[in-house]
Amino acid sequence: MIKERTTKQKTLILSAVQGTKTHPTAEQVHAMITDVAPNLSLGTVYRNLNRLAETGIIRRISVINSPDRFDGDLTPHHHISCTDCGKFCDFFEINYDAELDRVIEARSGFSIAKHETVFYGKCPECKNKELN
Amino acid sequence: MIKERTTKQKTLILSAVQGTKTHPTAEQVHAMITDVAPNLSLGTVYRNLNRLAETGIIRRISVINSPDRFDGDLTPHHHISCTDCGKFCDFFEINYDAELDRVIEARSGFSIAKHETVFYGKCPECKNKELN
DNA sequence: TTCTTAATAGTAAATATTACTAATAAGGAG
DNA sequence: CTCCTTATTAGTAATATTTACTATTAAGAA
Question: Which of A24, A40, A72 marks a domain boundary?
Answer without folding.
Answer: A72
